[in-house]
Design brief:
Growth Hormone, Chain: A; 2 domains; globular
Amino acid sequence: MDRTTPLDADEPPATFLGHPKGLLFLAFTEAWERFSFYGMRALLVLYLADELLTAGHIENVAGMGAYRALVESIFGPLSTVALASQTFGLYAGLVYFTPLFGGLLADRVLGAKRTVMLGIALMTAGHFAMAFEPLVLLALALLILGSGCLKGNIAAQVGQLYPPDAEGIRSRGFTLFTLGINVGAVLGPLVCGWLAQEYGWHVGFGTAGIFMLGAAIVYFTGLRHYGADRPRGKDREVAPAMTPNQRRLLALVLLVMLASVLQSLVFDQMFNIGMIWIDQRVSLDSFLGPIPVPWFSSVEPGAEILLIPVLFWLWQRQAARGSEPDDLRKIGIGATLQALGALVLVFGEMAAGGGKVGLVFPLVAMVVTAISFLYQWPTLLAFVSRRAPAPVQSLMMAAVYLTAFFSGTGSGIVGTQYETLGPTAFWSLHVALSGAGAVFFLLLGPALGRAMSRLETPTTP
């Protein structure tokens, strides 16, 4: 949209790139928060495997004995690397499970603003607690709860800035909001990873806490620019009951969400065992000196920032020719690309012949993973928002994040087999997992799409 073009009369006044001023504060809040989140996440599995879970450190962590006993009662005895992968997987999954409860807390008790404030406070405390070895399990719990309060509710506040019928500018507003996420995801691992390498793990974690304070300052500064909270509790409208066709449609939507977990698991593994694999198997020497392993976590979101305009251009060209893939085919293409990303790591192992793997292999794999993500995750969100039956649409949008819960925890479970299988077989398994998702969507997607369209067509009485 041209910046000089006025919005419709019923749209909010344009004060920031043609958008409500609240978007500026929410986007910057998200950028600071994602900086701290991804900076900490890039360090976590390496810190667990290389230091915290080793002799001389693991004994100092409050509650570790009970936690390890609980995890091993479910998954059996775990090595240091396996326990690190399992712990990372549980954390990566639970931060996408708790937003369901954060949404309920906002809807029924506190409202979105107070719930986001609570989330910022919990996450700030969690990031600072990560700097102290005895408090790591408590820190992870605080971060999981804080993310649950913040994640869905701050995105909901972006939507509340726009009238219901302002769909075009609303979608562009979310694109700008997403840009804040990617900027934080790029810079967080770079800064925290370098500080951790130069000055120690706890300096890296403490820096994430400082940037979380930045998120708090920005959010509180912009409070007056956010929309009013939605009605809570008994004041909310009661959704009508679903029709039989809507229940069938919901079942198909759930099937699509479940199938998407396969490629999402491989995506999550790139930042779980993928970081350990890079640390152990990749030659990190460069003309800049040794590359900090957490920096590889910045490659994927950085590639997304660069590739979004390219994909938009490609899809617009395809749309003009009537050949743009539909939602399910895009997800299938994403699954195919994610399988190729894992295959690059297999080729790296084969080319290394037992020696160190070249830098180019993880870099290419991360770029391919970025393209896969852009085909899959935003498309899945758009698919659910379009296809989910109206009576449960809000619930289903929250439930999309449950796929990230299952893929995150699944990556931890599968990651426990890394040492048993060895790198080549391990990454080959992930080629097969994402490849199975690709087969599902590319072969069955057209039939599923037609079935959903039939169920959405009103029947003539």
